[in-house]
Design a protein that fits this description.
The structure is a homodimer.
Chain A lengths: L2 E9 L2 E10 L4 E9 L8 E7 L6 H7 L3 H7 L2 E5 L37 H16 L3 E10 L2 H12 L4 E7 L9 H11 L11 H6 L6 E7 L5 H5 L1 H11 L2 E7 L6 H19 L2
Parallel strand pairs in A: 4-5, 4-6, 6-7, 7-8, 8-9
Antiparallel strand pairs in A: 1-2, 2-3, 3-5
Helix pairs in contact in A: 2-9
Chain lengths: 280, 280
């Protein structure tokens, strides 16, 4: 698993890098970014995963997320993977919400997606192994996860399925119940087929209904978000958490929309919230 | 002077907007961004101008500058103009460092530039008048100015020519002596002609040599900047300030380059530095 450095920049005392590697999981080259804050030689730093939303790559949060000052202050590495496999040989769809740029953090089981679209395994296994091998300062015994929109769905579902791996889970404007919204219907139906039972491990609310448990969740959601009522439906997560006894902090942020202007306002907060749990 | 709102986003409690207006100075439509931090009804807020560098528009700093948290904390408006007039009817050049995107904050006197390329007057007169008319919370009795690279040159020269207008002046990686570097030779020669005496009011070091005085300047410069020795030459500004008795704080930042990863690391610092002088 060799890794290629595409760029590095000094920022907020640390190093913002972009890297490429050949993934055995997706059978494609994959690009991700990693911010490593300033640290003493030999120090081990906790890792916060940030999963991005529809149409995004690693670059959106890397350029617009405003997380580096907080990561430098807290001593937290932030890793931002891509949202799907990409390439001319990779299947795609004309919609912005399916295919390349829209991997939905699932392992697809239907053709033509099943070969490359394995973002669940990529995030759960492939990329962490690469990080452990290539970033010696990364302490993979201390991981947390967050994400935005489709990536919020990814953070919640990957976090709920792997409660021992993550100290804490948060999300921005997540798709909390893809089985109950048009984006999810299209993506889960397309990648997994019509058997909705197979969708449940990719649906945060269904996972909780089926017994997945974590102690707490933090969610920020703009009340001016254009996707709030049709796609995101945070009230479904609130109901599921209430029934399961999960301590959900759902902050409806007045006047904020779905953009990186919203994310960048609160991402430093999330970094500090995770850091408190990663260092506790 | 009507103004058209192209977009607004809530961010860090305030409003990040992008606006277009028909400029009588450049005889083109001009776009700029303004961040207005949260404030009480009727409050008057000081204004920090941020002038951008070669190839940039308002968008670079607006998306990547990481200034809004500091502006919200300090109660400072940040305005980011474009770097030149633009349009199909506006003269241009194949180089990235001349023509559209490279106005150099001069009033051009040579054809085909003289008609539209009047960025000095646009920044000194036209846009402040528009801001005064359209942003009632902006207190134009309290202004400061900063900028990056070509925009650092703009901030220094506009600031030095208008010491009564600006409470404070800072810059990132500025072109401190365009008369003594290839970028400046090309731009000032192209916009103003061969008479180098006419260049001096567009050269920070020459302005200081010719008697322009301010009490202090703040400059951040990455020592890993690829343009440091050929184009930027901060030592020339240090010499000019020393001879003139201007208190220059020149911070050579180790390992930083010319990018927005550098700017975004220190722009919050500059916001706070200006705010202390704007509120003093």
């Amino acid at each position: 698993m060799p890794i290629e450095t595409l760029s590095t920049f000094k920022a907020h005392g640390g190093t913002q890098g972009v890297y490429r590697h050949a993934s055995e999981t997706t059978s494609t080259d994959m690009v991700f970014s990693a911010y490593v804050p300033p640290h003493e030689e030999g120090a081990k730093l906790p890792v916060l995963w940030y999963l991005s939303g529809l149409t995004c790559t690693h670059a959106n949060v890397t350029e617009k997320g405003e997380f580096r000052a907080a990561c430098a202050e807290q001593g937290v590495i932030l890793i931002a993977p891509d949202t799907s496999p990409r390439g001319q040989d990779v299947a795609d769809d004309d919609g912005y919400d399916f295919g390349q740029g829209a991997g939905f953090y699932v392992d697809a089981t239907r053709d033509p997606w099943a070969g490359h679209f394995r973002m669940r395994s990529y995030i759960e296994q492939d990329l962490p192994a690469l990080i452990a091998a290539e970033f010696p300062m990364a302490d993979l015994d201390r991981q947390s996860i967050t994400g935005h929109s489709m990536g919020g769905h990814g953070a919640l579902t990957i976090g709920l399925r792997n409660p021992g791996r993550f100290r804490s889970i948060s999300a921005f404007s997540p798709i909390v119940a893809p089985s109950q919204c048009p984006w999810g219907d299209k993506a889960l139906g397309g990648y997994l087929g019509d058997d909705r039972a197979a969708w449940r491990e990719y649906d945060a609310c269904a996972l909780i209904e089926d017994g997945a448990r974590v102690s707490e969740l933090l969610v920020d959601q703009g009340d001016g978000d254009q996707f709030l009522t049709e796609q995101l439906k945070p009230e479904l997560l609130a109901e599921a958490c209430k029934a399961a006894g999960i301590d959900l902090t759902l902050r409806m942020q007045p006047g904020y929309d779905h953009s990186y202007y919203f994310i960048s306002t609160f991402l430093p907060d999330h970094v500090a919230w995770h850091a408190a749990r990663l260092k506790g």
